[in-house]
Amino acid sequence: MKYSKKDLIHPIPSSRWHHVWSGFVGDKLAILALIVFLFYCLVALLAPLVAPFDIADPAFMDLMNAEIAPSWISGDERFLLGTDAQGRDLLSVILYGTRLSLTIGICAVLIQATLGICIGLIAGYLGGRIDNFLMRCADIQLSFSNMMVAIVFLAIFQSLFGIALYQQLAMVILILVIGLTEWPLFARTIRASVLAEKQKEYVDAARVMGISSKRIMFRHILPNTLSPILVIFTVQIANAIVAEAALSFLGLGMPATEPSLGSLISAGFAYMFAGSWWICVIPSLTLILLILVMNLLGDWLRDHLNPRTYKD
């Protein structure tokens, strides 16, 4: 049987993308979730421009302004959302904190996806002992609680190298720890898709034409396995942000000098029942809304990119 180059192309039908787009346009909740998420991304990206105060300014922290209630309660128009216990404008630190949390979440998931996709492609395409070895490594990783692994690693690092060094490298360490503990989810998903794709004719055509295994995996098979990855990627960003917030709440995350949403919630929790509730509640609501819209987008993508829900 002869194959031509066009036999190698196995794209997702354009009618399916039309189905996805029409489903999105007709779903008001998905549109709202996307608008809110894009708003978060925009204000996080433009935080230095839209924040009322520069958090790097030495005058930003003023204890004389500590624990001022939001403007609709105190009447102080300088601080729309009030101030925290250190006298910092809460709106400014939330904008910068959202930027930091999104950066950690996205970078950590990029590490997860890169490792998981490469391992899943190799395991699914090559099979045999390599597949067994890589999947046993994934099973071992999944047998441990990801949060427990992160807590143990971060606690050991602080003990060995000191809190001062940890605070300097906190962002990089959090990204690596969160990223390296969640790769099996991507790997197992990609492997399952590759096992189905490599039996199709376009892969046989590529082999007959002498195309290398590396090119077959990354150029021909990978693009046809991205639908579930998009779903996982969206949900995992939300999970990574929650993980960072949980670690910061436990004192193992970002330092107070580099506020993330998690560290803001942790710092404000002590004032929750002392009258200054806004220090904890407003960052908490910001985090909850961000996680909610990302999960809504992930659920929508799962429903509309699932082949079982689509008929040509």
TrEMBL record:
GO terms for cellular component: plasma membrane. It is a multi-pass membrane protein. Residues 98-298 form the ABC transmembrane type-1 domain. Its main location: membrane. Coiled coil: none annotated. The chain crosses the membrane at residues 29-51, 100-126, 147-166, 172-190, 225-250, 270-298. Keywords: Cell membrane, Membrane, Transmembrane, Transmembrane helix, Transport. It comes from the Bacteria. It holds the Pfam family BPD_transp_1. The keyword Transport applies. It is found in: Cell membrane. GO terms for biological process: transmembrane transport. Belongs to the binding-protein-dependent transport system permease family. This is ABC transporter permease. It comes from Marinomonas arctica.
